[in-house]
Amino acid sequence: MLAAVALVAVGGWLFWRQTGGHGGPTARGGSPAPGRTAGGGTGAGGGPGRSTDHGSTHRPDGKGDPHGSLKGRTVVIDPGHNPHNSRHTGQIARQVNIGTARKECDTTGTATNDGYAEASFTLDVARRVRTLLEDQGAKVVLTQDGDRSYGPCVDERAAIGNKAHADAAVSIHADGSAAGNRGFHVILPARVTAGPADTTAITGPSRQLGKRLADRFRAVTGSARSNYIGDGTGLDVRGDLGGLNLSTVPKVFIECGNMRDAKDAAQLTDGGWRQKAARGITEGITDFLTR
């Protein structure tokens, strides 16, 4: 059984590489109008709702390799939501096609009980990740940099990664679940073939990206894997998120913690911890791209 799983995984990876690492058209249907991430209290849908030593890019002190280890690589970082979405409720409520259904263009995201918005958290961490990745030679594209009045919509977020022919894409979020639900989890794309969505070529590499991301995030931040999603693995598979369904490049979401839990919120609102989160995300991406 294990041998069969291994053969399938290797075969999926080879298929992805043979198709140029992008599994399909550059941007299905072109780039949509500006305007989301799926979901209730989080950009990935609200509350409850893993490496060899060969080729390691990490020094014993846990820091990444020197300058240039990611030269020639393109990474798309997607800061979930937008701080200005709440001023454009009509625009972000517009329905877009995510393959399996039609969903809102975007949402406002969640916030801590003290009012620190998920959109502010995701943009801050995304900018920190960009700095760390560029320091290693990567070309980094943000889907938004606080420079848009709202959005972009989830379908455009996927299209940005596709158009950039990204070697990896990560969407950054924080959850909005019940108090007591703690820890981070990484969302992987399910196999979806519906309408404009076809994740066949990216599910394998996306899982590898997600495992490395979860491992490094845990090691760097000290945060536990989610106690309410993923059965202790810190991994979740979903087929209802447009940002994943419409991607033709390896892509995952990371929910860095639960904003509605006081202990998690204390980390998420701390600038020092957010720098650790950024480093964990950067090291996970680096692991994936250099092994």
Automatic annotation (TrEMBL):
Bias (Gly residues) ranges: 37-49
Keywords linked to the UniProt accession: Hydrolase
Bias type Basic and acidic residues, positions: 51-68
Annotated segments matching region Disordered: 21-91
InterPro entries, per database record: MurNAc-LAA_cat (IPR002508), N-acetylmuramoyl_amidase_3 (IPR050695)
Pfam families named in the record: Amidase_3 (PF01520)
CDD domains: MurNAc-LAA (cd02696)
MurNAc-LAA domain sequence ranges: 158-286
Protein name: N-acetylmuramoyl-L-alanine amidase
